[in-house]
Target: Peptidase M10 serralysin C-terminal domain-containing protein
Amino acid sequence: MLHGGDGEDSLNGGNGHDLLDGGAGLDWLSGGPGRDTFLFSAVADSTPDAADWIVDFVSGQDTIDLTGITGGAGLHFVETFSGRAGEAMLGYDLQVDFSGDGLVDFRVYTVGQAAVTDIVA
Model:
């Protein structure tokens, strides 16, 4: 498992199945070849102002794990936020409104588009 600190980090996994946790601050995450899990345990880990970048995301192989934030409650994927907590929008970035105020609280960018099935919440 690779852990980042509270600042800007660059984490690079090797071959195989890696678990990467960038922590707070803007982070650059690369799992390398294999099935990788990008772990987020707090909303502050990847905010709109300091969003992490997953630079080698492979849909169907890699996973974005938000269970540390959601407690396993899941997310509701929508086209636009309605002000309901737990709504998420997915494109080449994952945006989540955890507070229910209709604004983005959490954002992570992916190089390689993620699918809803790649998100564990």
The chain has a mean pLDDT of 96.
